[in-house]
Amino acid sequence: MKYFKEIITVFECDSTMDLAKKLKNFFNPPFVLQSNIQRFGRGQYGRSWNSNFGGLYFTEVLSLEQILGFSTFLSIPIIRVLKRYVNSVKVKWPNDIVVGRKKLGGILIEKSDYVYAGIGINVSNKVSEEFKKISARLSDFSEVNELHLFYEILDEEENLINEFLRNGFKNFVNEYNENLIFLNDEIELESNNIYRGIVEGVGIYGELILKTRDKVERIFSGTVLNFYK
Ligand code: BTN
Fold first, then answer.
1. Which of 28, 189, 197, 201 could link 212 by a cystine bridge, Cβ 3.0 to 4.6 Å?
2. How many Cβ atoms are within 10 Å of 169's Cβ, its own excluded?
3. For residue 165, what are the contacts with CB-CB under 8 A and spacing of at least 6?
4. Between 146-167 and 70-82, two packed helices, what is the crossing angle to 10 degrees?
């Protein structure tokens, strides 16, 4: 049986995050909402997300007992599918999808009554001047239709989600680490503090394990500094 009960597609909306929050009154979660265009796509930290036609924009509405590790888990089906088109794709902890130093996609998790997981991937959409220098698009590497990509990602996630629901992220740790950019490299990271250390990978909750000068830190949220060039 499929996990997602409905897949709803619209041509345009403000943000699939907001529309999904309205639609949960009419559809029973878990469901997925995809839009071809977003007028006001949102990114992490209150940033805007370029959402012109040609990109992939969707939100999953789920009811999860355990959210810990979910956002890192979600990178796995995305990375598996994107690798079919661009082999050098990597994940930047916790869940930016990157090619080299450029961002190809991102995940935004919002939690209220349900978990709302928004996924945005640049495919052949026009990227504004402001973001061009730090963005990659899948069409720069391969020809792929964004809706085809959407169904490939959902299929892959359907294959994996029962394992996540049963055992959490722990059985995905190795695959995540194999695809993690900066594994064994020194990084600077902003969390409640600024940390500098060697990336040892992620743990079973998706937390980053960072070997600093004096100890091994386990960091549950944060941003790698000075990444996009
Ligand atoms: C990030 O900043 O890395 C996260 C970007 C998430 C963008 C997606 S596109 C679909 C969904 N709707 C939104 O408004 N944002 C997310």
1. 197
2. 24
3. 64
4. 140
Q: For residue range 22-64, what is the model confidence (pLDDT) as tens digits?
A: 999 999 999 999 999 999 999 999 999 999 999 999 999 999 9
User: Residue whose CA is closest, atom 11 of ligand 1?
Assistant: 118
Spatial separation of the C-alpha atoms in residues 211 and 75, rounded to whole Å: 23
E-assigned strand segments in 14-67: 31-38, 56-62
- Atom of ligand 1 minimally distant from the CA of 49: 7
Q: What is the 3-state secondary structure (H, E, C) of 112-148?
A: CCCEEEEEEECCCCCCCHHHHCCECCHHHCCCCCHHH
Supply the residue whose CA is at minimum distance from atom 7 of ligand 1. Answer: 120
CA of 133 to the centre of ligand 1 (A): 19
pLDDT above 70 as % of the chain:
100
Q: In this structure, what token pair is assigned to residue 216?
A: 């091994």
Atom of ligand 1 nearest to the CA of 42: 14
- Beta strands at 194-202 and 186-190: parallel, antiparallel or unpaired: antiparallel
- CA distance to 48, 102, 173, 209, 220, per residue, from 186 (Å): 29, 19, 20, 12, 18
For ligand 1, atom 9, the nearest C-alpha belongs to 120
